[in-house]
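Researcher: Before we compare anything, I want clean individual predictions. No alignment, no superposition, just each chain on its own. First chain goes here; please echo the sequence and then give the structure tokens.
Model: Echoing the first chain and its structure:
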Amino acid sequence: MTASSNAYEYLDNVGPRDSEEARLAAVRRYRMVDQPVEDAYDRIAFVAGALFETPIATVSLVEQDRVWLAACQGLPGVREVGREPGLCASVIAQDDVYVINNAAVDPRTLDHPLVRGELGLRFYAAAPIRTHDGYRLGTVNVIDSRPRDAGQRQLKALEHLAAIVADELELRLMVIRSAAAEQRMRDTVN
């Protein structure tokens, strides 16, 4: 369901949670894709990388045919990657933290371009960003080029960071709605 620019984008207006179309509508209502990096998300990616001591950490949003990096530490200039299964695109299919200890031998990621390619991804841990109405929009994730394990406390921290992103997105949505309401009032007065 597509809301017009004049309508409120209420949380319950996007449709059944099991629909990919509804999930994509939920991603788009926050108007983050194709936007500059915002400090809040950049700080969250930094903290995630610091907690895991990984060279790469991102806040991602999974779009229809790509993964948009709303923030990225450790991959300068990279703002999007493909939506191949095994990493971010697989995380949004579940509620739990997703961990790949050694992507070179894990059947879920053997053929992924980030594993087979120049990056040589080996370790990946991600928590899904879940909206308050139940949509999984993307991930907060950490990446390393060497195999490793993650502690339960680290994984719980990753879940909390994903929840903070969800909270930030709700604040963003309130600003979007407020601006739309203000514009409607101006249009009514004029």
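Researcher: Okay. Second chain, same rules.
Model: Second chain and its structure:
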Amino acid sequence: MKVHSLFVYPVKSLSGIEVTSFNTDDFGPVGDRRWMIVDDDRRFVTQREHPELALVGTRLEDDGVVISIPGEGEFVLSAAEEEVRVLVWRDWVKALAGLPEANAALSRFCGKPVRVVFMPDSSFRRVDAGRVNDYRRVGFADGFPFLVTNTASLAELNTRLEAPVEMRRFRPNIVVEGAGAWDEDIWQSLSIGDNHLSIVKPCSRCVMTTVDPSTGQKDTALQPLRTLSGYRRTQEGVIFGQNAIHESPGIIRVGDPVTANKSE
């Protein structure tokens, strides 16, 4: 097995960036989901309610994250000194308000008032203590620093669909090739190059998987979620991919060898 592809998502629920390598820090992939969009209630905004956000591009530059909003232009995201508490799922998290340049354009694009916020190093959001005993942190990702998927599982799913879907639908960080379909169900840990990742929770999927990242539109037949629901439903939900935490900072590259420790 080896790493097939890698992705980072500088802003939660905006388009991701495929990269050939990424460094990791305490949060996970460096720069991954440190930015987020919130509404007037300071609650996180995602493609679940606004699938058009898939069309907002992201780019990493030396001076920070650049977003490209259709019909509005490009904006460099910068954090101000103003602290604001924001809600992501059940967690109230300390964040920094973003400078206002992008907010008006994003608000017009979404059709409601929104603004961007940044999670600084001084903020600490803990991963699910019911899954991870260690006092580990995560950015604005749904729950854990890494999402790992398997190319063979996507290929098997696509045999059941009238229109095949891309792995981008599932927004992974690490895509592994060379495993059998659904082998990830029994992975307990992964060695990737010099890195060690613990598999901590299957990833339950939602309506975001029905959003075509190329069009920003939900599939009217609710695919591929409907098909997955027919044979991948567990006590954890409808499963595709595995959430993971890492042992220590490092670097992960496309092509790195992957070894899995499996449950019996």
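Researcher: What stands out in the second chain?
Model: The chain is about 10% helix and 40% strand. Additionally, The first strand starts at residue 2 and ends at 8.
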